[in-house]
Design brief:
The structure holds 2 protein chains of 2 kinds. Chain A is α+β, with helices and mostly antiparallel strands. Helix content of chain A is about 35%, strand content about 20%. In chain A, the strands form 4 sheets. In chain A, strands 13, 14, 15, 16, 17, 18, 19 and 20 form an 8-stranded antiparallel sheet that branches. A 5-stranded antiparallel sheet of chain A has the order 6-7-11-9-10. Chain A has a 4-stranded mixed sheet with strand order 2-3-5-4. In chain A, a hairpin with a 4-residue loop joins strand 9 and strand 10. Chain B is built from 7 helices and 7 strands; from the N terminus they run H-H-H-E-H-E-H-E-H-E-E-H-E-E. Chain B has a 7-stranded mixed sheet with strand order 2-1-3-7-4-5-6. The chains are: A alpha+beta, B alpha/beta. The interface between A and B is medium-sized, with 37 and 33 residues. The complex binds flavin-adenine dinucleotide. The site of flavin-adenine dinucleotide has 31 residues of chain A, from strand 4, helix 5 and strand 11.
Chain lengths: ~525, ~180
């Protein structure tokens, strides 16, 4: 079956789109305006359970300067052409680099990739959106700076700006990325440029150190939103600690999750354990390097008996806690005693670090790398678990309390089981909150299974919301539904802001369910 | 890892267990090859028999495959613009590969080779070859088809599902790709 039909932005005539393309080429040069099918193909690869036909861009634009971005925005306003902004474009499992809906033009910022400043004294950086974690990592190494990054699991290929703007997370003490962001430069829909925080003061030296500036603090408006295009972003970097001790604590029973979280919470709040701790279920811990079919061929969810065999063969627990201590060796020794005591009380925990943890296998090696901000792509192994290229992150937020885990885990397993999917999950424990991250893995090549995955995800959203659990982030197929769970008053405010800032609705229409 | 054909044969042991002996043998032999490589080199990724056969198909159509071992999309990304690459990878490799090509390259064709069928997607117009095994293996037929698509001028998106012969033994899904940086 061949398709040659031209994709146009919604509501834009062919003549107007052609005129806009001419203008884009004048602004960017012909090589930076992509319109051919094989060039646009990488922007169509989605992993969520949506129809491929709903996520095809009409073009992709590759600017290299803020001036060019301003020109693009002005052209978009003139011809009412909607653009979907990405920075490094690796939002895999959340919509990837594809547009929010067919016809939108991708604004791909990856060529704006200058590291504008790294200050090793105050430990800050100022970056353009296309800078990858790998690039910044290399810069730090080449310049022998004693600084650590905090990448998400796709580390090397993703970037601090895109990740932070979608309020992503990492695994060092700087794991809540938006908390460590400081100062932005934003191109607004009208083509004006605004610098947030202290950035408005000419020659200010405090743009990357003082977040709040003067008057209402607005940086949050540009995260998970479609109110502007971020062209520069400041962030804080962690000073390399003199010592680092990653460790793993294994528990054998499903019910142990309650104890784990209750033991962990006071240690996290008091910063005894300062990093974003993960409590990883067997299927995730093994799924990064084991294939499901080795243990089970059925198309329903993997049975308990197979999970027990995986635990045995891989030497992993039902729950596997990965955390780390940072500081001087003396501080680590003191804190280690506190950790051992706290987790040792019930006699259920198996606590390991150093050689013992390394020998254990499971996810220790790659988790230890991520908790010290090193680059590692091991987690992509999850795509080989079930195969078929389907993946959607379901990530509700709750308090970091044991009592919030039992019903969540049961509910997730029940709904996933009903639709024949596996509970490939982890809890990420923040300072006081918890993200319950479930990777809904399915075979996207099978239309029936894809429909099931879609229905399953929709039911997860609704059932979790009924119990008070909302998602911290979601993929483009479900943005509307998730926005609905947060209530009309909030949606109204979002819409009012959108109408004020982007009356023509040219910036990422539909992002987080927001449209003008 | 970049190995020339000569190094490859010298280093048979290096490639070791995961590469069937047919790899060295196939490339050492000149059977079925075009007289004169007409098209230049193409990076070839993968570590098993399918890769060997794919390479054969390419050579039959005048390409010189350069064996690169297991696909490392990051290393591929570092290669110069214009580089053509093909081969087999796993699900994780495919996700990384397609994602890294955004704004950096072109996806010419992708194949998903399951137990029941071959599913091919071309961005270079229709797929001509039925991947029949009567002229050798389906992988070699795929190599010949990818060789053709590498120089085809079509731009239409074309999907084709091809049933695999009943009884053909298939151990796992294989994923093939043809891309240009
Ligand atoms: C195996 C695996 C593991 C993962 N683990 C993690 C993890 O540990 N933590 C995590 O957070 N994520 C994780 N992810 C999800 C995702 O890959 C990362 O969040 C990734 O960092 C997002 O891609 P990016 O950094 O390239 O951002 P982009 O894709 O460039 O941007 C993300 C979104 O931010 C907005 N945006 C981007 N740039 C701009 C801009 N300049 N102006 C305005 N808005 C903008 C857009 O809405 C865009 O869709 C994982 C994915 C996989 C496949």
């Amino acid at each position: 079956m061949s398709t040659t039909q031209r994709i146009l932005p919604k509501g834009v005539s062919e003549a107007d789109f052609d005129a806009a393309l001419v203008r884009f080429r004048e602004i960017l040069g012909a090589d930076s305006v992509l319109t051919e099918g094989d060039q646009l193909a990488p922007y169509t690869k989605i992993m969520m359970a949506g129809d491929d036909k709903d996520y095809i861009p009409s073009a992709a634009l590759l600017p290299t300067t803020t001036e060019q971005v301003k020109g693009i925005v002005r052209t978009c306003n003139e011809y009412k052409v909607p653009i979907w902004t990405i920075s490094t474009g690796k939002n895999l499992g959340y919509g990837s680099a594809a547009p929010g809906e067919t016809g939108q033009v991708i604004l791909d910022m990856h060529r704006m990739n200058q590291i504008l400043d790294v200050d090793p004294e105050v430990c800050t950086a100022l970056l353009e959106p296309g800078v990858t974690y790998q690039q910044l990592y290399d810069y730090i190494k080449e310049n022998d700076l004693k600084l650590w990054l905090d990448p998400p699991a796709p580390s090397a290929i993703a970037g601090p700006v895109g990740n932070t703007l979608d309020r992503g997370v990492g695994y060092t003490p700087y794991g809540e990325h938006f908390m460590f962001q400081c100062g932005m430069e934003v191109v607004l829909a009208n083509g004006e440029v605004v610098r947030t925080g202290m950035g408005g003061i000419e020659n200010s030296s405090s743009w990357q150190v003082f977040k709040w500036g003067y008057g209402p603090y607005i940086d949050g408006l540009f995260t998970q939103s479609n109110y502007g295009i971020v062209t520069k972003m400041g962030l804080w970097l962690m000073p390399e600690p003199p010592a680092y001790r990653p460790f793993v604590i294994q528990y054998d029973d499903l019910e142990d999750i309650e104890e784990i979280v209750d033991v962990l919470r006071p240690l996290r709040i008091a910063q005894i354990i300062p990093n974003a701790v993960v409590i990883v279920h067997t299927l995730w811990d093994a799924g990064t390097h084991v294939q499901r079919k080795t243990y089970y061929e059925g198309s329903d969810s993997i049975p308990r008996e197979a999970i027990e065999r995986i635990k045995q063969d891989e030497g992993v627990g039902e729950w596997n806690v990965y955390a780390a201590l940072y500081g001087t060796p003396e501080q680590i020794d003191v804190n280690w005693k506190i950790v051992e005591q706290a987790f040792g009380k019930s006699g259920k925990a198996k606590i390991m670090y150093g050689e013992e943890a390394e020998k254990r296998g499971g996810g220790f090696e790659y988790r230890a790398a991520l908790m010290r901000g090193d680059m590692n792509l091991q987690e992509f192994g999850l795509y080989n678990w079930r195969g078929g290229g389907g993946s959607m992150w379901f990530a509700p937020v709750s308090q970091a309390k044991g009592s919030e885990t039992k019903d969540q885990t049961e509910l997730a397993q029940k709904i996933l089981g009903k639709y024949g999917f596996d509970y490939v999950a982890e809890y990420i424990v923040g300072w006081r909150d918890m993200h319950h991250v479930i990777d809904l893995l399915y075979n996207r090549e099978d239309p029936e299974e894809t429909q099931r995955a879609h229905d399953c995800f929709a039911e997860l959203i609704d059932e979790f919301a009924k119990r008070g659990y909302g998602l911290y982030r979601t993929n483009t197929e479900f943005m509307e539904q998730v926005a609905g769970t947060f209530g009309e008053p909030l949606r109204e405010v979002h819409k009012t802001l959108k109408n004020a800032l982007d009356p023509n609705g040219i910036l990422s229409p539909g992002k987080s369910g927001i449209r003008s | 890892m970049k190995l020339t054909r000569r190094q490859l044969m010298k280093n048979g042991l290096l490639l070791g267990a995961s590469v069937p002996l047919s790899l060295g043998a196939a490339w050492a032999s000149d059977v079925g090859l075009a007289d004169d490589p007409a098209h230049g080199s193409i990076s070839l990724f993968g570590v098993d028999r399918s890769t060997t056969e794919l390479g054969q198909g390419l050579r039959q159509q005048g390409w010189t495959p350069r064996y690169e071992g297991r696909l490392d999309p990051l290393a591929l990304n570092a290669q110069p613009a214009g580089t053509l690459a093909t081969g087999f990878t796993d699900e994780a490799g495919l996700v990384l590969l397609t994602s890294l090509l955004a704004g950096r390259g072109r996806v010419l064709a992708l194949g998903r080779h399951d137990a029941g069928q071959h599913r091919l997607l071309s961005h270079r117009g229709p797929i001509a070859a039925p991947l029949a095994v009567d002229a050798g293996s389906w992988q070699a037929a795929l190599g010949r088809e990818y060789a053709r698509l590498a120089t085809a001028s079509g731009s239409a998106r074309h999907r084709q599902d091809i049933r695999r012969p009943y009884g053909e033994s298939v151990s796992a899904t294989e994923l093939s790709f043809l891309v240009r940086l």
